[in-house]
Design goal:
The protein is mainly α. It has helices spanning 4-34, 39-61. The two termini are 24 Å apart.
């Protein structure tokens, strides 16, 4: 039988996993944009990539 605290930890771990999967999809799209010929699009893609990587790193640390 799981204690309430264990359930919370399991729920949080599942949520982190789900959010990382969502961010992975966004990262793939941003990587695709980064190869665009337009330098403005490339710059914006790098901003998106940096934000996603920061969020992913923070999820790993919890």
């Amino acid at each position: 039988m799981n204690l309430p605290h264990e359930n919370e930890e399991q729920d949080f771990a599942k949520m982190r996993h789900d959010v990382r999967n969502i961010l992975s999809t966004a990262l793939l799209a941003a990587d695709s944009l980064a190869s665009n010929a337009d330098s403005n699009v490339q710059r914006q893609a790098q901003t998106i990539i940096a934000a996603i990587e920061l969020a992913t790193d923070r999820l790993r640390k919890k």
